[in-house]
Amino acid sequence: MNKQTLAWPLKPLLLIAVIVASLMAAFMFAKFGSGNKITAQDFVDLQQGKLVYEGFRRAHAKGFCIGGVLQSNGNLAQYTSAYFFSRKNTPFTGRISIAGNNPTAPDLKAPVRSLALSLSSKNEVWRTAMNTPPVMAVRNPYDFYQQLLALAPDPTTNERDPSKIRDFFDEHPESKAFRTWASEYSPKNSFAEETYHSINAFYLINNKGNKQAVRWRVSPPIDALAAADLDTSNNDALQDEFFNRLKAGNVKFDLIFTFATAEDNVTDPTQAWPSSRREVIAGQLLITDATPQKNSICNEINFDPLVLPTGIEASQDKILGARSSAYAESYRRRAKEHLLRLSE
Ligand code: HEM
């Protein structure tokens, strides 16, 4: 037997191994846009922590469901063919939450507050999940994973390590805009007084096929009522304030789109766009009701930011794909546990 015949049976195996490895690498690359292999499972394992709260979201676990109407004023219709932005009212289901894996965490300790929306027409669905910071600290999924690692509490002391956090931010100068925001941000006494940002950029596409890069935010109108001081010993202080506020009337927000120019970076969520950019108020969100999340409709929704209607497209921001994959993984875990719980 010569060398060639000895090697031959190995060749197809080697070829298959190379093809499988390249496909896996391409998959990881396409998913998270870097050579570093962080999977959706890795993200969700880290976010859920050691103590798993079964049936709950692995991030933003504490929250409640909201319902209401988006009253579009038609101002955005020339920029997008999305059904929801012609002049009309569309009902929505949404969720207000705080960041973190603990469904009973104290409202006032959470560094990030959030608002998610799901709008449906006969043929289209639009989902968006927004946070209080206008930018992220990092620009790719691998670095976000490192950020979560740096912020994770020490397993023995259950405390965060300030030196780890400092080192992380020192190594990530792109976090400057985020750090500036964090140092200036003062949390409001009500979810109704916060502004929630899409952070990642998207494109509006109109009927002629013209594309406009945008970010959006949901912001309280200037006449929004300021909340009274809160009972800081109440873990549900913000939830209670919101439910009480709704008894007195609907809660309103403006839905505002910021238009990028050719100078703005559309794929980098760490960069704020100049405040001089054109803004269009697309309409008002009227929140008419709120319900605890347990057994409520918003619990069954995955607010995947890539669920978009015709007329809105994702940008190439790598964070978006990572979010979509991680939300699906978190959804899969909690849906499985939830069904198990229902059938008990
Ligand atoms: C790579 C970056 C990110 C990862 C891995 C990630 C991961 C997750 C996961 C696993 C969930 C739970 C999903 C579920 O079970 O339904 C979640 C929820 C959420 N995330 Fe993110 N996230 C990321 C970035 C962001 C950004 C940039 C924003 C804001 C623009 C955001 C806003 C939210 C909100 C609002 C929710 C709660 C949605 C709801 O109420 O169901 N996330 N995230």
User: Total number of helical segments?
Assistant: 8
> H/E order of the elements?
HHHEEEEHHHEEEHEEEH
The largest sheet, given as strand count, sense and whether it forms a barrel, is: 10 strands, antiparallel
Specify the CATH architecture. Answer: Beta Barrel
Assigned CATH class: Mainly Beta
Count of beta strands:
10
Going by helix content, strand content and strand pairing, the class is alpha+beta
Number of domains: 1
| CATH fold field value | Catalase HpII,  Chain A, domain 1
According to CATH, the homologous superfamily is Catalase core domain
Enumerate the distinct ligands.
protoporphyrin IX containing FE
Task: Give the N-to-C terminal Cα separation.
Answer: 64 Å
Q: Quick check: average pLDDT?
A: 90
Strand residue percentage = 15-25%
Low-confidence stretches: 1-31
